Amino acid sequence: MNSLLSTTDLIIFFGSLVAIMGVGLWAGRREDSSEDYFLAGKNTRWWGVAGSIFGSNVSANHIVGMMGVGFAVGFAQSHFEITAIAGLLMLCYFFLPVYRKLNVFTLSDYLSKRYDDRSRVSYALIMVVIMVVIQMVPGFYIGSRSINLLLQGDTGRKAIAEAVVSDDGRISEVNVVYGGDAYGSPPKILLDGDLTEALSPAMEAGQLTKLTITGELPSFPKDKPGPVISFSGGNAQNPEISPGDVDPFHYKLGILIMAIVTGAYVILGGLRAVIVTDVIQSVLLLLAGLLVAYVTFSQPEIGGWGNLVERDLGKEGVERLHLYNGSDHPALPWTGVLTGLMVLHFYYWGTNQFIVQRALSARSDKEARMGILAAGFFKLLIPFFSIGTGIAAYYLFKDRNMDVAQDAVFIKLLTELIAPLGYGLVGLIAAGMIGAILSSLDSMMNSAATIMTFDIYKRYVNPDASDKQLISMGRIWIVVFIVFAGVFTIFTMDPNSEDSFFLHVAKHQGNLIAGVVIAFALGMFWKKATAAGGVAAIVSGVIFSYSIPPAYAMLAEGNDALIELFGAKLNFLHGAFLSAILSLIVHVLVSKSTQPDEEKAKLTWTGLGVFTPAQLAVFGKTLLISLGIYGLLGALVALDTMVTPVIAAWIGAAWTFLCFFLSARLKASESGEPVYKEDRFWAGGLASCAIFMMYYFF
């Protein structure tokens, strides 16, 4: 095995694994109560909240997956990070105060208090599916795949061939675009994933030179994409594996190692161990991401950020540094980004157990808010060191005439740029990446176990359970989830898939959460929201999410105007927004037809004293005015007036900061502290940075 990791790299890499596990076990050595185990004793400092939220959120998907999307799609992927700031601010000032006032362990508990147990169970089941199936499984997949590619090094690249389809739909010839390397034997040929013997390969010096049609091939209608030719087997080291592919045995071994390392400290140490290790892993992640970015941008073909911008906008550029794609874009349309993506953010940051649980562990409300805001500033680095690096890699590999799959970009950068430098840098980056993987997996394990322990076991099985019994049950559930996710990953995920798993995760998550967001938001805002309305919103949201896309496909068939506007296939972001709107309608209609509970109706923003009606009115007016200003600025830039993206960026940022600054100054005058010590001052800085980026990269 020609590993990328030298002896020094291996020492750093495996040393970090042992150190992380050891620190986690030490941090959680004394977990005597359920509050200690599941909420870290509610004694976490702001930096612990920040590191844990950032570490829980940023997984290998953000390094490997986002870099790949930046490579293939462009800077528009940054919307996932920039607009996330709106979700973080909602958590800070709207959702978190309610949860902390009610002293809940799980967000299902809030739904039970505000509605009834039907909403509790619905949310609990959805969250467990999201955390275990949609989050943990891809985490195991991309983690093991990436680490294995690091360990095996450069084993060559697959051959690439394209078929020429005639007017009658038949394949007339097959051209070899790239012959591959490191082939020890002729590979098996697959046509659209199916093995075929109708194409015969010719090899020379370990490379494919020609594909000859020797048998009957299927036809391909004009209105459908042409056939995809792929190759299986032929690696000189292992004839059953293609060059550059991950060995299935090593893939399974990687999953097992990650499960053992993460499970060890999560099972024994609880949330305190998770938070401490997350902070360390976040530092490693940032170092790794910034190092890869620095080396990539330092290449003579790139020449820094400024040269990349000039090239991207030049004659040979593909304009990937723009944030906004057309409304019919298949991956990231601007209309979906400003609608459905906001629904995903409000779910992820405001109503998501494994994120909110970190804020619930803070020693005070202010420490929680400052931690959330600090995590937001770290989030705004990702567009540059991950997505921007992916764009730079596109031009770099183009100049070097290299064909690279989007999820292989990160590994290829290490192979081509970092490994030759030595000094243990690949080991440091590998440690950062494994840290990103583990920090996400441990959060899922802990939070999913918290839900099952409190919302199922304690609620329905053993209401009088002691702290010792609750901790034991939590540990059992963690083991169950690790085993299930690991086995599921092994048998369902292809370790050599070239799909974008970041968008895969976002899409499937988006199908489950539209109604959840509505149930939480309307429950906190509207006193007349009823239990029947809450559960109806959650259930209908799932139904709408899965039924809207096929309904749109039927509607779009033959409708050229609709296809031109939103594409032939409805983007999942558009679907999430439509599902949320329909769930809102369902919630309102059902609530109006049922009788509200007077006591439960008090668990709203105004009923709990989070806001007065006057404060909500002021916020609503400010929000409407701000949206009007942002929309006007966007229109002026889009119409190519004298208002350039840079001018709009400064105006939008200044207005945003002013709104927060006035609120911070009022709070400071009441407390007698300097304005810069108010969290709203820093919230204004964070929001201003996000708004600035949204216009600057217009």
Task: Describe the protein.
- The chain is mostly helical and 698 residues long.
- It folds into 3 domains: 7-17 and 36-154 and 249-602, Sodium/glucose cotransporter (Up-down Bundle); 160-243, no CATH class; 613-696, no CATH class.
- Helices cover 66% and strands 5% of the residues.
- It has helices spanning 7-27, 34-39, 46-57, 60-72, 79-82, 84-102, 107-114, 117-152, 248-297, 304-313, 334-337, 340-350, 353-360, 365-379, 382-399, 409-418, 425-461, 467-492, 501-525, 531-556, 560-566, 572-592, 613-638, 645-671, 679-696, and strands at 160-165, 171-178, 188-191, 194-196, 199-204, 207-213, 229-232.
- The protein has a 3-stranded antiparallel beta sheet with strand order 4-3-7, with no helix packed on it.
- The longest helix has 50 residues, at 248-297.
- It is globular and about 80 Å long.
- The protein starts with 6 loop residues before the first helix and ends with a helix.
